[in-house]
Amino acid sequence: MDEVFDVIIIGAGAAGLTAGIYTSRAKLSTLILNEGAVGGQMVLTEEIANYPGVELIKGYELANTMKNQAKNFGCKIKSNIKISKYNFENKVKEIELIDGRKFKSKTIILTPGGRPRSLNIEGEEVFKGKGISYCATCDGDFFTGKEVVVVGGGNSALEEAVALTKYATKVTIVHQFDKFQAFEHAIQEASKNPIIEFIMESELRGFYGNGQLQKVEIEHLPSGKTTELKTDGTFIFVGYQPNTESLESLVELNNRSEIVVNSEMKTNVKGVFAAGDCINKRYRQVTTAVAEGTIAALSVSEYLR
Amino acid sequence: MKLLRTGLQEIETAQELEKFISENENVMVCCGRMGPMCLPVYDVMEELEEERSNVKFKVMAFDNPEATVIKSAPECRGFMGLPFTMYYKYGKVAHATSSIQNMQQITGILDTHFK
Questions:
Q1: Which residues of A touch B34 (CB under 8 A)?
Q2: Within an 8 Å CB–CB cutoff, is residue A125 touching chain B?
Q3: How many CB pairs (< 8 A) connect A and B?
Q4: pLDDT in tens, A121-130
Q5: Architecture of the domain spanning A4-116+240-304
Q6: HSE of A211, CA atoms in CB hemisphere, 13 A
Q7: Domain spans of chain A?
Q8: Domain segments of chain B: what residues?
Q9: Is A36 on the interface with B (CB under 8 A)?
Q10: Per-residue pLDDT at A50
């Protein structure tokens, strides 16, 4: 393909779609290349109640609206593609897909987002959908009258554990530290729920069953002692990791594999910008991703001027 | 009544499903809701619908009582994660999966069962 885009955006979550809205509305030729489903982490959120100007909206609805806005301004979107190679060395950047298609652009905005962290332990892939879940909203009702384990100690883990008490007869939270990282209100709500039990300073070591998950192995970290816990299901909420593996040698990453950017969303490579859950920051919200996507788009406009 | 808002055609009755899989050699049906584990699968199916003319792609709402035909299928026994995705070859179940699947996993199944 000989066309040189003004900007190629990698990723179609809140940051990428926002950047696409701004750059295409500014009449910059814009292509979004997205390796997953459009919407990113937004579609993993059942309802968004704190997006200013919108009282309550489902995550996928907000994502769809953003996608349509970007498309209506002329932004091209290719999703579910697989990128095999990046070349950011020259003034015109190149991206090659696994099927051999190549795309060129004067600038790049990296918004690859993040993904739910998995535990990467024995049996996790085997029992996915057969007892292991990453979404209480989606799968909670399969566990009505059953006993489940929730892994994690952040807001998601504690809030989802409380949500699961609508269905399960017992919810056991397993957390690796002696304190939770969640906000106080989430900790209090989980602590006062009589159905929830806690196993602290412990990590899961394996999932076992016969076609369906039946038990987990838990290691108590201070003592190294392992025990088995019978369970019908396990919900894993151990945070997110940035999708930056393929960018390691191309732009500067910090020790958490996040892309290092300045306040204008510029990376250490000229003409390459980044925004959203993949960058070095503390708070990961739709609103922060939208703000960074906006800044990255405006920085691109200024860079191309 | 249609319950899903996707770019794919929705099957509404068990009879319609039975007829469709008997009339088409390769059929993929995703039975789910408009939720975070299902949407990525629909998205992949929409992409593949343009590329794979040898496969028919359909969705069915998990909350439609008629979807019992999928939920109670022996191949779905033990499934505890949405969506339930069925792959039919000549009207028979060739493969079934539970929970979210990505493009690579789905194309792998299509390549294996729908050559």
A1: 58, 60
A2: no
A3: 74
A4: 999 989 989 9
A5: 3-Layer(bba) Sandwich (3.50)
A6: 6
A7: 4-116+240-304, 132-236
A8: 9-113
A9: yes
A10: 84
Burial degree of B1 (CB within 10 A; 0-12, 13-18, 19+): exposed
CATH level 3 topology of B9-113: Glutaredoxin (3.40.30)
Question: pTM for this structure?
Answer: 0.72
Q: What is the CA radius of gyration of chain A?
A: 21
SS in 3 state form for chain B? CCCCCCCCEECCCHHHHHHHHHHCCEEEEEEECCCCCCHHHHHHHHHHHHHCCCCEEEEEECCCHHHHHHHCCHHHCCCCCCCEEEEEECCEEEEEEECCCCHHHHHHHHHHHCC
In whole angstroms, what is the distance from residue A123 CA to residue A136 CA?
Answer: 20
Secondary structure of A8-26 as H, E, C letters: EEECCCHHHHHHHHHHHHC
pLDDT tens digits for A267-280? 999 999 999 999 99
Contact A130 B34 (CB under 8 A): no
| Domain A132-236 superfamily per CATH | FAD/NAD(P)-binding domain (3.50.50.60)
Nearest CA-CA distance, residue A268 and chain B, Å: 32
d(CA A184, CA A188): 6
Task: Flag whether pLDDT at A2 surpasses 80.
Answer: no
Q: What is the pLDDT of residues B32-62, one digit of tens each?
A: 998 878 888 998 898 899 889 999 999 999 9
C-alpha A70: how far from chain center:
21
B107 touches chain A (CB under 8 A): no
Residue in chain A nearest B32 by alpha carbon: A138
- The pLDDT tens digits of the residues spanning A233-267 come to 999 999 878 889 999 999 999 988 999 999 999 99
The answer to whether A36 contacts B102, with C-beta atoms less than 8 Å apart, is yes
Same CATH topology for A4-116+240-304 and A132-236: the answer is yes
> A34-43, A53-62, A209-218, B30-39: lowest mean pLDDT where?
A34-43
What are the distances in angstroms from CA B26 to CA A251, B93, B100? 44, 10, 21
